[in-house]
């Protein structure tokens, strides 16, 4: 891991509230007195928010200090974090690599040590992917576990507000302040089943990393993983068309993002219905595995994070979400945890738990990392 660089992750800096934990929020969450621009020129003159997003209000009331809003992939619709208009954050530990999207700035400011934690949003891996790229922890709670009131887009069947931290102890503290039942630290190794679904070198690195911590997971399969990925792409395309089509009229949405938004117009009702059938089947498959083993583990990314140069074409890297997007479809809580490097690029382990078991994800992360804080 390289020395920490400055992140350039903030789009606006300010201070609201006071307290023992400092946090930043992705610029898709409303903060009263500021515009929510979502990294998009078409929202440059958006109205000033009159109220905080509910989760922001809750954190300010829980003795946390807000330090600003962070950069992102335009309209939170991309996986690289590259944003020529709004600015691309530097990946603090891996500056040649993408910061990951869409919550790029939120991951970067945590990795750089500029805040204790941050908020992002995750519709198809947009917290877990940048966490993996920047070498930090990223939690996507179960669908609906954290309020989306005051979050863009207003309607989504996939999107979740998520959290970035550098360590599991801080994640425990934040969730405790939000009244999540985390429970006491584990007294023995967590029971984990491993899904081999990434590049073989990555899967080998992850199972070795677990073995170093005394865990020899049983190997299981998720037959519906690829179908769930494709169904998630179908639904996000349609839902983003419905949410953002009104921004396309004056040409101020970047060409690649506008092209992907327009593609959602062609998604038919029948395709959405089939995607919902996949959702039901995949949710049942995941639930079935979790009845026997309380935690599933698999790679966060199926390949190593690309460099900024390698990721110039955003469509060429969309399959990087192949292992994270399915759990937006199913709604299960999932956490990405740094797990070493291959050839100087970060590798991350994804843990998945039953709905309502965010606390178990934190407990497992504490066990696997030695429960470090700071």
UniProtKB/TrEMBL annotation:
It comes from the Bacteria. SUPFAM superfamilies: Amidase signature (AS) enzymes. InterPro entries: Amidase_CS, Amidase_dom, AS_sf. Residues 23-176, 256-361 form the Amidase domain. This is Amidase. The lineage of its organism: Bacteria, Pseudomonadati, Pseudomonadota, Gammaproteobacteria, Enterobacterales.
């Amino acid at each position: 891991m390289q020395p920490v660089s400055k992140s350039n992750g903030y789009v606006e800096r300010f201070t609201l509230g006071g307290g023992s934990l400092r946090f930043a929020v992705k610029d898709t969450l409303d903060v009263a007195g500021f515009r929510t621009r979502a990294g998009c020129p078409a929202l440059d003159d958006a109205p000033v928010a009159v109220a905080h997003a509910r989760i922001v209000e809750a954190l300010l009331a829980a003795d946390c200090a807000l330090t600003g809003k962070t950069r992102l992939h335009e309209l939170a619709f991309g996986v690289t974090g590259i944003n020529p208009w709004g600015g691309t954050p530097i990946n603090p530990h891996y500056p040649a690599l993408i910061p990951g999207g869409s919550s790029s700035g939120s991951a970067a400011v945590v990795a750089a040590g500029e805040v204790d934690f941050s908020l992002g949003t995750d519709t198809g891996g947009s917290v877990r992917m940048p966490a993996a790229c920047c070498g930090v922890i990223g939690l996507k709670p179960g669908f609906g576990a954290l309020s989306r009131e005051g979050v863009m887009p207003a309607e989504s069947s996939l999107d979740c507000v998520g959290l970035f931290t550098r360590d599991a102890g801080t994640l425990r503290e934040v969730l405790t302040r939000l009244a999540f039942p985390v429970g006491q630290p584990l007294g023995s190794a967590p029971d984990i089943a491993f899904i081999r679904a990434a590049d073989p070198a990555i899967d080998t690195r992850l199972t070795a990393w677990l073995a170093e911590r005394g865990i020899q997971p049983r190997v299981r399969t998720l037959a519906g993983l690829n179908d769930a990925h494709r169904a998630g792409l179908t639904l996000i395309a349609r839902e983003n068309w419905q949410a953002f089509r009104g921004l396309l009229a004056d040409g101020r949405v970047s060409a690649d993002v506008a092209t992907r938004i327009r593609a959602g117009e062609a998604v038919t009702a029948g395709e959405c219905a089939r995607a919902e059938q996949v959702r039901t089947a995949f949710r049942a498959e995941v639930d079935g595995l979790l009845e026997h083993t309380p935690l599933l583990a698999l790679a966060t990314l199926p390949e190593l994070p690309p460099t900024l140069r390698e990721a110039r074409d955003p469509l060429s890297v969309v399959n990087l979400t192949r292992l994270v997007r399915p759990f937006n479809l199913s709604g299960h809580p999932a956490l990405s945890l740094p797990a070493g490097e291959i050839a100087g690029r970060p590798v991350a382990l994804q843990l998945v738990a039953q709905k309502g078991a965010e606390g178990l994800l934190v407990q497992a992360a504490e066990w696997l990392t030695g429960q470090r804080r700071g």
